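Sharing a chain and its predicted structure for anyone who wants a worked example. Both blocks are below, sequence first, tokens second.
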Amino acid sequence: MSRKIVLFYPPYEGKPLGAPLCLLALAATLREHGFQPRIIDAAIEPNYKQAIGEAIADAICLGVSVLTGPMIRGAIEAARLAKSLRPSMPVVFGGWHPTLLPDQTLAEPYIDVIVRGQGEITFCELVKAFETKSSLKDIAGISWKTGVMHSHNPDRPVQHLDDLPLPAFDLVDFDAYEKLEGMRKLAYATSIGCPYACNYCTDTVFYKRRFNALSAERVVSELTELVTRYKIEEVALLDSNFPVDLRRAVAIAKGIVESGVKFRWTFQASTDFICRMTEDEIRILGASGVTHMGFGTESTSEAVLKLMNKRHQRIDEMYETARRAAIGGIKVTFNLIFGYPGETEADRQITFRMMSDIGRRFPNTRFSPNIFTPYPGIPIWPQLRNLGVQEPRALKEWGNLALGVNMLPWLQDDNLVRFNRMLDYFLIDRQVDRTATKAASRLQRLLRRLLAKPVRWRIDHGQYSFPWEIWFSHLTEDLVKRRSLIDGRELPTEAVNVC
């Protein structure tokens, strides 16, 4: 009898950071229990529907990992295909979105079970139950249905990461990902969770503010071995907030330096942790190969930061983080959120003006501005409903919620035009600061010099009427409107990070 398990990662906009780590983690645990996982990643499998159809012919079940946004569309296609070919085969959804909205997800006829939260042990127990046709009622961490009745079993206790096996990187076709990315890149996580409780963030709901981390020794051992074995050039850490344990973070950097293995690596953090590091420790990060750090700074308005429950975020630390990163030769990206409920135009003006100042002072700094996106399960949904935000009512509707899609009633019509004009001037100002780059043509450098003074005057004074500089700038180049916090790359309009 076949013990095959098919795991699918749906398509999404943008280049992948590497193979889907969530599925590799599931595959490793499944193999420990004698199952044969088959991973299908739409990023490298253009004919993924055909591949799924062939793979499920003798499989126990199909597992699909889902994030909120456009990749839901591919997940739905895969599930419907599986049910049309093998109606009795269980289809299991897992990942952030199903965990946050299990009832709405289970309402779809092509989904049988939801794996909530950390899935390695839960999914393995579930697959064993499918294989033996056993009851699902005692499997912690799942939601399931019988007809129209939904059952939500108790949560599974969190498993310490050090107790789980190394993800099944040996299943990865690194050559295929290299063709897409242009380099040999690895997605890896040293920890999950973040201790903060920002009101707009799903992380606090998903991980309940618990920080769960691999030991520094295991991280150094695994990373240096993986880099050497698979000739990896860059590692993208998927940690929500890598340096929460500062001693551990520095130990990892020191261990990489001492190993003598050379590679680039990038991570996300909060500015307060970087500011707690000494300058020598920042230099160690740079020496170990860190080339980029991403920060969810979001706003420089004290009023907005308070609304966001970002009491740990201080304005002076944004400046200090940029300065310290420069010491280590590290680039940084500051994420910005606009349109947050309660934000005024004056608040936006404060953020644009101050972030422009940071960008002018520190050339290693980039920015990724976004309109506030209300993801499922975040703490402020009751307030959003009262303000007239229409929450998607079905799984398919959430598939239209790409990062930056504007569904805010208070940021429409003239307000939206005004905001977009402010944003364009901010982005032009950032482009003007790159006049010396080798990539810029002589015409581009000339135009940027002509734009510099009037653009900065507008930002400093909040004057945006008759935007001739915007029209002028659009003649020569496109503005970079969004960057990945994980590695700083430019992102398309619809982009979702790999899990």
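Comments welcome. Residues 410-481 form one domain.
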